[in-house]
Amino acid sequence: YIFFDEPTTGLDPITAQTINELIKRVEVETETTIIVVTHDLESAYFVGQKLVLIRDGEVCFEGTPDEFQASNLEFVRMFRTGGKAGK
Questions:
Q1: Are 35 and 10 part of one and the same domain?
Q2: N or C: which end of the chain has fewer CB within 10 A?
Q3: Are residues 41 and 56 in the same domain?
Q4: How many structural domains compose the chain?
Q5: Are residues 68 and 85 in the same domain?
Q6: Which residues does 28 contact at the CB level (< 8 Å), separation at least 6?
């Protein structure tokens, strides 16, 4: 396993995308499982094959990025929208 903790936090969008591409390249070239902790949904959607959302120490969602985006679970919707009602 290779762990990344908030690898794109505080980076400009161009550098963040470069880091995301590097993470994916490392995963493919090393055939290693990559675990990324992030609050950056764009990064999670790009690098993640599976997303896990944790709330109060408990897994409240586990699935693909597409399943995350389609989820009707209240906390998932709030996380996607920054706490606003809607998608």
A1: yes
A2: N
A3: no
A4: 2
A5: yes
A6: none
